[in-house]
Structures are given as structure tokens and as C-alpha cells.
Design goal:
CATH architecture of the largest domain in chain A: 3-Layer(aba) Sandwich
Mean pLDDT of chain A: 93
Strand order of the largest sheet of chain B: 2-1-5
Oligomer: heterodimer
Number of helices of chain B: 0
Number of strands of chain B: 5
CATH topology of the largest domain in chain A: Rossmann fold
Structural class of chain B: mainly beta
CATH class of the largest domain in chain A: Alpha Beta
Number of domains of chain A: 3
CATH superfamily of the largest domain in chain A: ANL, N-terminal domain
Helix content of chain A: 25-40%
Helix content of chain B: under 10%
Structural class of chain A: alpha/beta
Distance between the termini of chain A: 58 Å
Strand content of chain A: 15-25%
Largest sheet of chain A: 7 strands, mixed
Largest interface: A-B, 36 and 15 residues
Shape of chain A: globular
Largest sheet of chain B: 3 strands, antiparallel
Shape of chain B: flat
Chain lengths: 497, 47
């Protein structure tokens, strides 16, 4: 199983279908394969051992992915927002790479002594129809390497093997299931697993993918209308901006909106459901290590939860849905014993799409093949998975384990709160005490004492933040994931209420 | 005929499941009978 097989199926089965790019300038499946072949020859000629992609998303990205696959080298999408020192260190791990990067954008590439090529130049080089497939495909090379930084030190390279990505695609997508007019809008950056996964699932389905490389609510809405987008993928902070947007929010072409990458505040998804009753919402939970999605809360699950009077069913709106058929889920205790429904434990996953393989380290799976995500959670009686939060973020106050996510969810219920982070701060008496950083909704203000009362009323007194700080913005990644360690770093400088 | 690109075929007698990745003229058989198409349980489009 190899990524090139997916491209062959697309090019042979629907070669004339437009699969990448905006309506006026789209590339067909057949053209994409031609470009992949041409790109592979460039990589072979230049003896590149990897293809680093250090640029915004665009047509150059899928061409890069499949050219690398044909050349038998890994694609390495890097975060273009990283600082020079971090980028320099990551580039040093790929000493013979060819780097796709806009000229002048990254002097660090030249400093690293690596050859580079601009995305536009890459597209020129791979154009034309005279290319032929390269022979002697290297089946062992990883398909994609994505660097993920945990809460500890250096970023780890997750090795996504062809087997992982292809099994994910054929396990979750039906070949050529999209109509000719279907259009997918992607606005996550190329170094995020969702962008990699989206590229190949949309191709296999025969759905044209359009990219918005810089998110802005007005631009997103305009693009959905102009391109008649039927399927879109966003992260929760983007949906929050869209829902808050003052202008026209009609999206008549949109049939499905998928989201993931970070927890979705209940208030936002409820507003979105009410605002767009004709749209099917999909919550997708997954990790880089699992080639993206392992659990899905589908459109009917959303509607059933929203409409139900049964609290257990309503609660499912805050769940990650049910695990997909090709993945095994286990909720384990610290010793590896399986826990029953309703009991919180470590979320562990097994399946062909689960890589859990880190460069230089190997596969992080137990003797039964399970990967420990280091997320805590539980399943309800019907198998709906509820995520509690990262194990590493757990606050231990007076011997009690407290999940920040639980307190954050309560604070987010207050309409004056736009964003929140709850963290543990070293405390001589308790070990750690709880403090919260709150961002008011645009133009609004918060009442910290009222917020503490809210938490005390909904949760136990021991879970009430001792202090509430107010900030204009919280540090989040481009895909809206909270950077908790940076929040901790901010606290000493803030004066608390 | 059991040979369409991208379709999955199953055998009525064993657990063999095949995915067609390259179209061809022949039809897939298992245990002496043509394999039947497996209709996928569609998952909502997500990543």
C-alpha cells in the first residue's frame, strides 16, 4: 500500500476531474500525476533525501506530496512560523533535502546550506505532459514526517508510513464518492496532520480541494460562496470567529462542516447548529500519531444531542463521537488494565492507521499494539468517547487530580467569556493551586468574582480558581491549540484580580 | 461484474475482502462464486 496507488486510482478512474485549486485554475487528477512524476524526476536528479515544504498551503503542496512519494523520499512540511533557531535545528535533521520555500522568506534555509525552490518555480518545473513514472519505487521510506512538540523539550518527528496513510484513506472514504461539483475548503496549514489527511481523502473521493492559506471570517465566508464550497474543515477558534462575524453568514452551498484539532466550546457549536440548520456538523478527533481521525461525531449525532431532553444524550455534543470501525479503542488504567464504560482512563488506540512512530525512537505501542495518546477520557454506554484533557495538564491540588478542561468548559459557558485557560501554579500549601486566565468577548468585560461563583456552583469548591487574570488574548497555535506552557510563563508578570 | 475500480468485494463463504485498485477485464471469484460488492458504511467527510 503506497500513496502512489491512490494517485493512480484517481488519475486512471477520473483523470479529467479537477481535484486541486480554485475554479478558474484547477489541476485535474491526470495532471496531478504528471506533475508528481515530473517532480519525482527533479528530486532524483538533485539526489534529494527529503522534500521539505516550508510554505503556505496551495497547489504546490499536493504536487510535493506525490512527487516525494514517487521519488521514495519523505515529505517534511515545516511550520513557517517557527523561529530561526527552531527551524535551523529541524532543517539540520534533513541534511540532503530540497526545500520548497518562498524566496527571502527564510534565510535560515540558505544558512543551512540547503537547496531551495519557490512554490511557483516548483509548479513551473513540474508542468507539462511529457513526464514518465519513475521506476524502482522505494517502498520503505516514510511518506510524511510531521514534527510534533509535546510539553517537554525538542520536537519529535512522527513518521507517517504509506501503510498508515493509505489504510486511513481506504478505511474511511469511499472511492470517487464525491459528485463532480463537490468542493472542499481547507484552511489549516500544511504542517498540520489535517492538511495532509484532507489532501489524500479528498483526492480519493474525487473532491476538488480549495485552500485558504490565511484565515479570516469574512474571507472564509466569501470563499465558501464564490467557490460554492460543499465541505469545509475548520478548527474551533475559526468557527468562533465565523459565528461572531457581524456580516452575512449565509452559506447556501455548504453541506458538511468538519472541525477538530482542539476542544470545541459548547456555546460555539450550539450557536453554529442553530445558525445553519441545513449543515451537517462533524467533530473529528485524532492525532498526528494516528494519521488524523480516529473518532467521529457525525451530523445525526449532533442533531440528536441538540434535540434530546435526555441529559446523557445532550452531553454527547461535547464528545468526540464514536471510534471509526477500523480502529480499536481501549481506556486503560496506569497499569494497562481495561476500564469499564463511565470510568476515566488513558485513551489508547490501535489500528493500521496508527503510526505512533517517532524518528530515532521507534513505535510507542504496548505489547498489544496500543498507542497511549496521553489524553484522558471515558466512553459512555453507547461508546461515545469523552475527552478529559492531556494527562500532562492535570493539576494536582491537595492530592486531588483536576482536569483544566472541566473548569474551562464551565467558564466558557458564561457569555462574557471569549476564551479561557486554567492552569496549576506552584503553591506551598496545596502543591498546586488553580488559576485562570480569561479573555473577554470582543468589546466586553468580565466580572471575575461572578465567574468564581459560577465555577463554585457547578463544580466543587476545590475546583474554583483562586485567582482570575484578564488578558486580551491567549497564546494559541495557528490551528487554535492552546499553548499552555506559555500561559504559565505569563502569570508571574500579571496582577490578579 | 466484480471488477470495478475502488469497489470492495467480499466472499460469501470466507472473510476475504478485496479492494480493486486497478480495473481489468476479469471478475473476482472466491470459493467458486463471483464475489459480491460490499456497500460501505459511509462516514461523514472529516479529517
Amino acid at each position: 500500500m503506497h500513496l502512489t496507488m491512490l494517485l493512480d486510482m484517481a488519475a486512471d478512474g477520473f483523470g479529467d476531474r479537477r481535484v486541486v485549486g480554485p475554479a478558474g485554475a484547477a489541476v485535474t487528477a491526470g495532471e496531478l500525476r504528471q506533475r508528481a512524476w515530473a517532480g519525482a524526476r527533479v528530486l532524483r536528479e538533485r539526489e534529494a533525501s527529503a522534500l521539505v515544504y516550508l510554505a503556505t498551503n496551495g497547489t504546490a503542496f499536493p504536487v510535493a506530496m506525490f512527487a516525494a512519494a514517487h521519488a521514495g523520499v519523505p515529505l517534511v512540511p515545516l511550520n513557517y512560523r517557527l523561529g530561526t533557531a527552531q527551524l535551523s535545528e529541524l532543517l539540520s535533521r534533513h541534511p540532503k533535502a530540497l526545500v520548497i520555500t518562498a524566496p527571502g522568506a527564510h534565510d535560515v534555509v540558505d544558512a543551512a546550506g540547503l537547496p531551495r525552490i519557490a512554490p511557483a518555480e516548483w509548479l513551473q518545473l513540474t508542468a507539462g505532459d511529457s513526464a514518465e513514472a519513475v521506476s524502482d519505487l522505494d517502498l520503505d521510506s516514510p511518506a510524511v514526517i510531521i514534527y510534533t512538540s509535546g510539553t517537554t523539550s525538542a520536537p519529535k518527528g512522527v513518521l507517517l508510513r504509506h501503510q498508515n496513510l493509505v489504510s486511513y484513506v481506504i478505511g474511511t472514504v469511499e472511492y470517487m464518492s464525491a459528485d463532480e461539483d463537490d468542493v472542499a475548503l481547507v484552511c489549516v496549514p500544511p504542517y498540520h496532520i489535517a492538511a495532509v489527511a484532507n489532501c489524500i481523502t479528498n483526492l480519493y473521493a474525487g473532491r476538488r480541494t480549495v485552500v485558504l492559506d490565511h484565515f479570516d471570517a469574512a474571507d472564509w465566508l466569501a470563499t465558501v460562496r464564490a467557490e460554492q464550497v460543499t465541505n469545509a474543515l475548520v478548527v474551533p477558534t475559526m468557527l468562533a470567529r465565523i459565528v461572531e462575524h457581524a456580516g452575512d453568514k449565509a452559506v447556501p452551498s455548504l453541506r458538511t462542516l468538519a472541525y477538530g484539532g482542539a476542544p470545541m466550546p459548547a456555546r460555539i457549536i450550539e450557536q453554529a447548529l442553530d445558525m445553519w440548520p441545513g449543515v451537517g456538523f462533524v467533530n473529528a478527533y485524532g492525532l498526528t500519531e494516528t494519521s488524523s481521525t480516529v473518532a467521529v461525531l457525525g451530523p445525526e449525532d449532533h442533531r440528536a444531542a441538540r434535540a434530546s431532553s435526555d441529559p446523557a444524550i445532550r452531553a454527547r455534543l461535547g464528545s468526540a463521537g464514536r471510534v471509526i470501525p477500523t480502529v480499536d479503542l481501549a481506556i486503560l488504567d496506569p497499569r494497562g488494565n481495561a476500564l469499564p464504560a463511565g470510568t476515566v482512563g488513558r485513551i489508547c488506540l490501535r489500528g493500521e492507521q496508527v503510526s505512533a512512530e517517532y524518528a530515532g525512537i521507534g513505535r510507542a505501542v504496548d505489547e498489544d499494539g496500543y498507542f497511549d495518546t496521553r489524553d484522558e477520557g471515558y466512553v459512555d454506554e453507547e461508546g461515545f468517547l469523552f475527552i478529559g484533557g492531556r494527562v500532562d495538564d492535570t493539576i494536582i491540588r491537595g492530592g486531588e487530580n483536576i482536569a483544566p478542561a472541566e473548569i474551562e468548559a464551565v467558564l466558557m459557558e458564561d457569555p462574557s467569556v471569549g476564551d479561557v485557560a486554567v492552569i496549576g501554579v506552584p503553591d506551598d500549601e496545596w502543591g498546586q493551586r488553580i488559576e485562570a486566565v480569561v479573555v473577554p468577548v470582543p468589546g466586553g468585560s468580565v466580572d471575575p468574582e461572578a465567574l468564581r461563583t459560577l465555577v463554585r456552583a457547578k463544580l466543587r469548591g476545590s475546583k474554583t480558581p483562586d485567582r482570575i487574570h484578564v488578558l486580551a488574548e491567549l497564546p494559541r497555535t495557528e490551528t487554535g491549540k492552546l499553548i499552555r506552557r506559555q500561559v504559565r510563563g505569563l502569570l508571574p508578570a500579571l496582577s490578579a484580580w | 461484474m466484480a471488477n470495478q475500480m475502488g469497489k470492495r468485494y467480499v466472499c460469501a463463504h470466507c472473510s476475504t475482502q478485496l479492494l480493486v485498485v486497478k480495473p481489468g477485464a476479469g471478475a473476482l471469484e472466491c470459493h467458486g462464486a463471483p464475489m459480491t460488492i460490499e456497500m460501505p458504511k459511509p462516514l461523514p467527510a472529516s479529517d
